[in-house]
Write a structure and sequence with these properties.
The structure holds two protein chains of two kinds.
Chain A: H1 7-46, H2 51-65, H3 69-84, H4 90-115, H5 119-127, H6 132-162, H7 174-185, H8 188-217
Helix pairs in contact in A: 1-2, 1-4, 1-7, 1-8, 2-4, 3-4, 4-6, 5-6, 6-8, 7-8
Chain B: E1 2-11, E2 14-24, E3 29-33, H1 40-47, E4 55-60, E5 63-64, H2 72-78, E6 79-82, H3 94-104, H4 110-123, H5 139-151, E7 157-161, H6 169-184, E8 188-192, H7 196-202, E9 205-210, E10 213-218, H8 220-225, H9 230-239
Parallel strand pairs in B: 3-8, 3-9, 6-7, 7-8
Antiparallel strand pairs in B: 1-2, 1-4, 4-5, 9-10
The chains are: A mainly alpha, B alpha/beta.
Chain lengths: 221, 240
């Protein structure tokens, strides 16, 4: 029995998949905004002079990097509600999982970018009378941010793809929607191919966007 | 202007400065020389507290820099620092490098700060480079911008940490020229350098340091033509 590629199944599944894709984008954006804040905070704590702050950030980063994201998602959605005695909406669990997970990796990106800025820059800032905070804000941040863009882009794409794991807690994002369509029409080849292409559209757009920012920040063209 | 008493500085167990006493009066140009590792840069960096001193006192413009009531950021605006590696801010234009201090520390208005910035760039001969980024400047130009950046805070003294050591030989002259002019205008200057010509021409006093102590100090004429200490003699023989 030969395989009959049904081209029109792809087109027919797109409208439903786009609904799932919207959720994927929403979770990714919310998760990464919070993740970036978490990452920036922990990255800076990791290089602070206070050893307690450094250790705290270290525990967070190591425990997240050292455990699978799938386990983290299940822990947040099934584990935490037991302990807290309250239900967590799957969307909230998804956003929290993406935020907490990406935050740990972003913390390392932030730390690395800051440490790569020559100490002479801090000394020059301080010696024209800027405070520590002003030196960070006007001198170090802008230079570090520029260096962060390529590794951040990488992490953003990873986190976007990681949202597909939220299928296990029943969030109706792109992958889950694909599964549901297949459950009804049994056309796994066409539907998964379409799902893959839609992910590719998102990741390629994201890397284009980041390229644009990188170029825009490059003052010495 | 700057009074240093029995200054000690340790890095871990290594004692870099072993009791320095030094008085620098207003308008005086002091050149510090000595072999590498003698503590001359560290001494300079202790004056504006880029290095924490281990013991002793440093008084700048009447204020003890270690005193809890002293605002160290204000001291740093009174004693501008010029670095060997320039340390210009690469993400800011030449003019922005110069105006950052006046804008954020002196709280000057933008038009005033830019006017001051342009005046200072003109003073160091770089009026036409105001909108250029540091990456497009030569080493000598970078160092002149760095001098303008420090001057923008209207400091009472200027500290120079080997300002010409990272420059190609043909670019040294243009930086020294700016420094000489500052000296003639009566700026209090402490300069760590091996430029004998500069020392001869503008220094009121040359200090020779070795192994964390001041070995000898005198006028440039005396110290170069008639050094007393054997270590000074040996050093001068090597750099001539």
């Amino acid at each position: 029995m030969g395989f009959d590629f049904k081209y029109n199944v792809m087109w027919e599944s797109v409208p439903m998949l786009l609904v799932g894709m919207k959720l994927t984008i929403l979770i990714t954006i919310c998760g990464l905004v919070i993740g970036f804040a978490l990452g920036a905070l922990n990255g800076l704590l990791k290089i602070s002079r206070n050893i307690v702050f450094r250790k705290l950030a270290g525990v967070y980063i190591e425990s997240i990097r050292g455990t699978p994201i799938m386990v983290q998602v299940m822990f947040i959605y099934f584990g935490l509600p037991m302990a807290l005695g309250m239900r967590i909406h799957p969307m909230v669990a998804g956003i929290v999982a993406i935020a907490v997970n990406s935050g740990a990796y972003i913390a390392e990106i932030v730390r690395g970018a800051f440490q790569s800025i020559d100490t002479g820059q801090t000394e020059a800032g301080r010696s024209i009378g800027l405070t520590h905070f002003q030196t960070m804000y006007y001198i170090i941040w802008p230079q570090a941010l520029k260096r962060m863009i390529p590794p951040l882009g990488n992490q953003f794409i990873i986190s976007l793809k990681d949202t597909s794991l939220l299928v296990v807690v029943g969030v109706g994002e792109l992958t889950r929607t694909g599964q549901e369509i297949i459950a009804a029409n049994f056309r796994a080849f066409e539907v998964w191919l379409t799902v893959a292409l839609l992910y590719l559209v998102m990741t390629l757009s994201l890397s284009r966007l980041l390229n644009y920012f990188e170029k825009k920040m490059d003052i010495n063209k | 202007m700057i009074k240093i008493k029995n200054l000690h500085k340790n890095f871990g167990t290594l004692e870099v400065l072993k009791g320095i006493d030094l008085d620098i009066s207003q308008g005086e140009v002091t050149v510090i020389m000595g072999p590498s590792g003698s503590g001359k840069s560290t001494l300079l960096r202790c004056i504006n507290r880029l290095e924490e001193i281990t013991s002793g006192t440093v008084i700048v413009d009447g204020q003890d820099i270690m005193d809890k009531n002293t605002n160290i950021n204000m001291i740093r605006t009174e004693a501008g620092m010029v670095f060997q590696q320039f340390n210009l801010f690469p993400h800011k234009t030449t003019l922005e490098n110069v105006t950052l201090g006046p804008l954020k520390v002196r709280k000057m208005s933008r038009p005033d700060a830019e006017k001051l910035g342009r005046q200072l760039l003109e003073k160091v001969g770089l009026a036409d480079k105001a909108d250029t980024y540091p990456d497009h400047l030569s080493g000598g130009q970078k160092q002149r911008v760095a001098i303008a950046r420090s001057l923008a805070l209207r400091p009472k003294a200027m500290l120079f940490d080997e300002p010409t050591s990272a420059l190609d030989p043909e670019l040294v002259g243009e930086v020294l020229e700016v420094m000489k002019q500052l000296g003639r205008e009566g700026m209090t200057m402490v300069v760590v350098t091996h430029e004998m010509g500069f020392a001869r021409e503008v220094a009121d006093r040359v200090i020779f340091m070795d192994e964390g102590v001041i070995v000898e100090e005198n006028t440039p004429e005396e110290i170069f033509s008639n050094p007393q200490n054997p270590r000074t003699q040996g050093f001068l023989r090597n750099i001539l």
